[in-house]
Amino acid sequence: MPERDDEEREFDIRWADGAELKEPSARARMLAARWKHDPPGPVPFRPEPGHVGGGRRRSPWVSTAVVLGCVAAVIVLLGYAGFRPPF
């Protein structure tokens, strides 16, 4: 008998989805109250063209050259040190 009571008390998602009035979440209510007195300004989806992290725009090849230069420097240093692989 207790098992049947538990099944009857179980939350029915179909019943909840069929509700006529759905209450907004606490966060939605808080933001609505805040924006009622002080509406937010427009926020662009993307930054303005040419704006990269506050600095000047660099070519994508600069970072590629830096990485390849570091790899070459490591290879030269390992060769200079006489590093031999164990195989």
End-to-end separation? 73 Å
Number of helices: 4
Element string (H = helix, E = strand):
HHHH
Q: SS-based structural class?
A: mainly alpha
Q: Compute the average pLDDT.
A: 78
**Biggest sheet descriptor:** none
How much of the sequence lies in strands comes to: under 5%
> What general form does the structure show?
elongated
C-alpha Rg, in Å? 31 Å
Q: How would you characterize the overall build of this protein?
A:
This protein is mostly helical. The chain has a domain at about 60-85. The chain has helices at about 1-10, 15, 25-35, 60-80. The radius of gyration is 31 Å and the shape is elongated. The model has no long low-confidence stretch (mean pLDDT about 80).
Give a short overview:
It is built from four helices and no strands. The chain is an all-alpha fold.
Q: Main attributes?
A:
single chain, 87 residues, mainly alpha, 4 helices, 53% helix
List the helices and strands and how they pair.
Elements: H1 2-9, H2 13-17, H3 26-37, H4 60-80
